[in-house]
C-alpha cells in the first residue's frame, strides 16, 4: 500500500510517501523551486517521491492532506466575529483568497494532482484529510522508538489547536486536551521575532541564537502583561498587546509602548536591547515548556515524550526538558514544522485509518532523515563537464584522508553526499563543513560563505560514541535538536577584561578548545553522527579525528542566506562558485576553488540573498 502525504499553502510545502508503513521518500518543495519556505502545491516534491518509489500517481492507494480547511475557515470566521469591528481590515485582505481557493481546497488539490498525473480528477486515488495537530502528533509518535509515549504538539496554530496533548499507544493516538487559538506559544515567539526585526516563520531560530548575548531583563514584563502562565503550564495571552487576530502585523502600539519603542526595522543594527528581549522571550518559552512537560508526566504517567510542531524546533528548550524534565527520554520529529505534517498525515492513514501495526527496530524509523534525492557519479560528471569545471575523481580511501588534511588546514568545504536531508537541518548530506578548532571559522563561515548575521552559531557534528567526551549529554542527538553545554575540561577561562564584555562583543572571545561550535553561553546544538545512517560522513569525521585528535566537525547547511539548502549538483556548484568556499565535494569528485574559472555573476545575486 502506497500513501502520499501533502503539506501545502501556508509555508514549507512538502510531500512524503509511505510504502507499507515505511517512509520511502520525503522532500520540501523549496528544494526544487529554490524559493525558500515555498508554500505552493508541492508538485515537484510529489514527483520526486513517486520516482523514488518507482510508481505512478494512479498507483497510490491514498493521498492525504495534513489539515482540514473547513475547520480552519471556521476558526477564521469566529475570530473575525469575536474581534469585530477591529478585524475588518484583516478580514477583507484574507477573504478573497479563501473564497476563491482555500475554501474549495479539495477541488484545488484534485486539479493540481490531475495535472500532475495527466488524468481526470475522477481517476485519482481517494483524497483524505487529517487534522493539523493530528498530523503533528502522528509525525512525532509513529516514527519514534517508543511503543508508548506522551505526545506534545506546540506550534503557532493549526485549525484551532495551538498546543495539544496525545497518548500514543502502539498504532493509535488518543487526544487528551488542547489549548486553542489565539492563545499560542508559537505566536508569542513569532511576535517577538517580528518585533526584533526578523521574518516571521523563518527568523525564529535567529531569535533563539541571539538570546545568549542578552540578559532576560524583560521576562517579568512578559509574564506580568502579555502571558498569564499557570503553575501547570497552561496559559492565556493578553490580546490587547497583539495584532495578529485583527490586523496585518504581529504586535500593536500598546506592545510598542510597553517595550519602549516601535519594532526594529529589518536589517538595521542589532542593539543590546534586542538581545535582552530575545533572552527574555526565550526564558519564558523554556519555562512554559518545562511546566507543560511536568504536567504531562503527572497526568499520563508515561516515561517517554514525543514532540512536534514549530516550537519543538527550539532546541534549547528541548535540551532543558531532557536534562531537567521527568521523562526517561524524549524524541523530536526532525521536520517538526509543517513540512513534517506530510509524513504525519500519511502515517496517520496507515496506522489509524487502516489499523496497521507498527514495527519496532530499537531505533526511530526516520532513517537519519536522509529521505531526499541522490545523484549518481555519471550524472555529476556530466554536469561538471558541461560547465567546464576542473575536478579530480577519487575513491573514498583516498578522498576522505585528503579531505581531513584539507579541513585541518582551516579550509571551508562544501560536502554533497548521498540522499538529501528532509527538514530544516543539514545533517551531513548537504553541509558546509570546517575545523571546529579554528577560532576564525565561525566569522569566516557567517560573513564570507553564508552572508548572514555574525552572531549566528554553528553546530558540531560529532561521532556518536564520542559525544560525552565533548558535551554534557549522555545520549545521541542525530537531528541537531538538542542543545547541551560543552564539557568543563574543554572550556577556556575568560580573563577579567573579557568578563566585562557584553552583547555582541562576546562573539570573538574563544570559549573552548572547539571555539567554532561553542556558543557564547558555552552551549552547542549537537548532531551525533552514526555509522548506521550516514557511514560516509562518519568515516570523514573519523579520518579528521585521526589527523587532528578532534572527533568533531563544524556543520552548517549548504546554502547562503535567503536560499534553500542545495538539492542538485548544479545548486551546489553555483553556491560553491559564488561564495568563498575553498573546496567542493560532489560524491567522489573533488573541486578546488583555486583551479576553477569565473562564474558569471552580478551584485544583484548577492543582494537577493543578503536582503533575506
TrEMBL record:
Gene3D superfamilies: 3.30.420.40, Carbamoyltransferase, C-terminal domain. Residues 3-347 form the Carbamoyltransferase domain. Pfam families: Carbam_trans_C, Carbam_trans_N. PANTHER family: NODULATION PROTEIN U. It comes from Aerosakkonema funiforme FACHB-1375. Residues 404-593 form the Carbamoyltransferase C-terminal domain. This is Carbamoyltransferase. Belongs to the NodU/CmcH family. One of its GO terms (molecular function) is catalytic activity. It comes from the Bacteria. The lineage of its organism: Bacteria, Bacillati, Cyanobacteriota, Cyanophyceae, Oscillatoriophycideae. InterPro entries: ATPase_NBD, Carbam_trans_C, Carbam_trans_C_sf, Carbtransf_dom, NodU/CmcH_Carbamoyltrnsfr.
